[in-house]
Amino acid sequence: MHGSAAIRCFGRDRRLLKPAEFQRVLKKGARAGGAYFRVIAVRGEHPQGRLGLAIAKRSLKRAVDRNLAKRVIRESFRHQDAAVLGGLDVVVMANPGVRSASLAALRDDIDRQLNRIRLKCDAS
What are the structural domains, with CATH classification, of the chain? Predict the structure, then answer.
């Protein structure tokens, strides 16, 4: 991939992949919650931010709803400036209200939670 296509890519180096990585974030991370998403983050050793998604079937029964939530979260995470989330390992969970929310409300909520979590991690 060349040029702008590489920017839109969400490669393995930008994701939390191992259960141990998720556990570290969930145990030690700062938390921020909104109407539709809960975000937990901790400083990591990677220079660019990494994202882990924990979208439970219990929260969103239909696969189409889970996939929508994941797309919105990944898009928002990709558009965050590297200086904003650089060095953070972030896990995002969806609340059941995602199903009934508009796309604009979902984007607004995840952006707000990512900014809040960055401030919390910078303060500690």
Answer: 4-123 (3.30.230.10)
